[in-house]
Amino acid sequence: MKAFLLDRYAKNASLRLGDMPEPALGEDEVLVQIHAAGVNVLDAKIRSGGFKQILPYRMPLVLGHDLAGVVARVGPRVRQFKVGEEVYSRAPDFHIGSFAESIAIKESALAHKPKNLGMEEAASIPLVGLTAWQALVEKAKLKKGQKVFIQAGSGGVGTFAIQLAKHLGAIVATTTSAANVDWVQRLGADVVIDYKKDDFENILRDYDVVLNSQDGKTLEKSLRILKPGGQLISISGPPDPHFAKDIGAPGFVRLVMRLLSSSTRRKAKRLGVGYSFLFMKASGSQLRQITPLIESGAIRPVLDKVFPFESTNDAMAYVEKGRAKGKVVIKIK
Ligand SMILES: NC(=O)c1ccc[n+]([C@@H]2O[C@H](COP(=O)([O-])OP(=O)(O)OC[C@H]3O[C@@H](n4cnc5c(N)ncnc54)[C@H](OP(=O)(O)O)[C@@H]3O)[C@@H](O)[C@H]2O)c1
């Protein structure tokens, strides 16, 4: 099969289009013929080596986390999927590789594709959808009437998280630049702040939840817009001791993570608010809970650009610029 491979960690390194053997199929795995793959900032960060302490991969590595496709074969212990069915997934860490013609995925990370979406739209959902779900539903337990600040409403995570928070009945504030203000409002955001013109800290007050995806300065300001008892969930760091424990990090990595987040945790404590770091996980069962929200129209995919398979490096470069309006997808079949 054809696949885009990373030979060594390097910033801006081109992925190499190569031939790989078809993936071996485990007993509880499903072989998926990939039709489309979603591109995420995580792919670019892995390529540059930014995650090698947390996710040490062996080279050459087929990159790519998100996919939609058709079941080609199933392992003997697979119960929920049949050959020919349409599926989508965020491939689990250490078993990634969606920038390729096929992938073997554990049944537990897979879900049937929403019926109302094409392959490209479906491939745009899993990683950002699960991130928003794990932040707002699982961690924050966001409730009707609560106020949530979702940074970067025009990005992959932001476009999904705004719609999910509105579906849950929350009041949503977000940031974006002037050109995106109108369409982010149409996604459902109640308060849209042009971050290049206005400082959100002067506008937002007494929030219940912040989904932080930007830099340290933004995080610090976000702590101050929370009401006492509110929570800040960060997906852009710093990692906290719970996360280090969760991934079974070795002693020195745990210590580094404790130190990296100590100032943030101290500031949060002083303000009487909660701080936690989220590193999203693959989950077929949570994707299955997201699917009906898409099929009912409560959440719609937002696609910026679709690149052909041979332009996978251009798709990565586009995402890395940080200006995507929604998601970037590679069409494979
Ligand atoms: N920990 C996890 O599990 C996890 C999961 C998913 C993502 N993440 C991280 O979360 C971050 C966002 O991911 P993403 O996929 O949403 O990224 P993305 O789609 O690449 O975000 C691009 C968007 O961000 C907006 N933006 C850039 N700077 C901004 C700022 N200072 N304030 C407000 N908006 C800004 C841009 O809008 P303008 O062009 O208008 O500036 C653009 O629309 C990344 O760092 C990613 O690695 C972490």
Computed structural class: alpha/beta
Bound ligand species = NADP nicotinamide-adenine-dinucleotide phosphate
Main sheet overview: 7 strands, mixed
What is the succession of H and E elements?
EEEHEEEEEHHEHEHEEHEHHEHEHE
Which features does this protein show?
single chain; 333 residues; alpha/beta; seven-stranded mixed beta sheet; six-stranded parallel beta sheet; 10 helices; 30% helix; globular; binds NADP nicotinamide-adenine-dinucleotide phosphate
Q: Could you please describe the fold and organization of this structure?
A:
With 333 residues, the chain is of the alpha/beta class. The strands form three sheets. Strands 3, 5, 6, 7, 8, 15 and 16 form a seven-stranded mixed beta sheet that branches. A six-stranded parallel beta sheet has the order 11-10-9-12-13-14, with helices on both faces. Helix 6 (216-224) runs parallel beside helix 8 (251-271). It is built from ten helices and 16 strands. It is globular and about 55 Å long. The mean pLDDT is 97. NADP nicotinamide-adenine-dinucleotide phosphate is lined by residues 40-42, 45, 128, 131, 151-152, 154-158, 175-177, 180, 195, 213-214, 235-236, 278-280, 319, 322-325.
